[in-house]
Design brief:
Number of domains: 2
Low-confidence stretches: 1-23
CATH architecture of the largest domain: Distorted Sandwich
Mean pLDDT: 90
CATH topology of the largest domain: Glucose Permease (Domain IIA)
Structural class: mainly beta
Shape: elongated
Distance between the termini: 64 Å
Number of strands: 24
Largest sheet: 11 strands, antiparallel
Radius of gyration: 23 Å
Oligomer: single chain
Strand content: over 45%
Number of helices: 1
Length: 271
């Protein structure tokens, strides 16, 4: 029995507590006993907001909020999550569990009028090898694959904060078995949408989590890691939704020939 459980038992008698929490370096739930029961606190030590879905199984305990519940915890915030009040003179207890994911699933709204910059150097031109709803790996997804050699400089299509990075993989293949082996980075935009840049080369990401980048800033070098049938840059913007749903959206780009255009598969684009 933990020190916390002993404290609660001393205060309230006849209680048992079991927590089943998905704790990691970003989101944690802690418990503090009070004269009337227990307060659960939630803390986000990450660099971006997280949407948390929380539920609990209660035995002779009253919660001050309806369960299950979904909340957004801002970056760097510790806040009260739930107050629990046991019934007197009864054996009581609770078990809780929670899941969480990056972004604000309640308030994120993609700005459809925003015009993105092509994610490579000015003057360069690359073909969109696979476009929206492509029949290889983009079925049901609004995502773009720019065919480019390994080591091509990648630039931010839109300003924002880097919220997640992976750069340690050197494995890639043309089958779904390599899906989880890709290097990537995620950038959070001011409207709550998130851009995913993927398939960077080994050690090919040039920015860090928490870094604020400007549109056009160098963020890394393209590669062929993860589920990839050939060297390319995968680019996708999505809006986080409840249940960890990623609602991908179409994005308009400025090119050498247009101020705002939706990119099409098999076409090359320069700016």
């Amino acid at each position: 029995m933990t020190k916390l459980n002993l404290l609660v038992l001393a205060l309230l008698c006849c209680g048992f507590i079991t927590s089943m929490a998905q704790n990691d370096k970003h989101i944690t739930v802690s418990e503090e006993p009070t004269d009337d029961g227990v307060i659960l606190y939630i803390e986000n030590i990450g660099v971006c907001p997280y949407t948390v879905e929380f539920d609990a199984e209660l035995t002779n305990v009253r919660a001050d909020k309806a369960l299950p519940m979904s909340i957004v915890v801002p970056a760097g915030m510790r806040m009260e999550l739930l107050r629990l009040e046991p019934k007197p003179n009864a054996r009581w207890g609770y078990r809780y569990n929670f899941n969480y994911y990056m972004g604000d699933a309640f308030n994120a709204r993609h700005d459809g009028l925003y015009v993105y910059q092509l994610p490579y150097e000015k003057g360069a031109s690359f073909v969109v090898g696979q476009g929206y709803n492509g029949d290889f790996s983009h079925r049901g997804e609004k995502a773009l694959d720019f065919v480019m050699p390994v080591g091509t400089p990648v630039h931010a299509a839109r300003e924002g904060m880097v919220i997640k990075v992976r750069s340690d993989s050197n494995r890639g293949c043309g089958s779904e078995s390599c899906r989880d082996d890709g290097n990537y980075l995620l950038i959070l935009h001011s409207d709550g949408s998130i851009a995913n840049y993927a398939h960077f080369k080994h050690r090919g990401v040039a920015v860090k989590e928490g870094e604020v980048v400007a549109q056009g800033q160098l963020i890394g070098y393209s590669g062929n890691t993860g589920w990839s049938s050939g060297p390319h840059l995968h680019f996708q913007v999505y809006v986080p939704g409840l249940g960890n749903k990623r609602n991908s959206v179409a994005t308009y780009f400025r090119t050498a020939s247009s101020e705002s255009v939706l990119l099409r598969e098999k076409q090359s684009y320069k700016w």
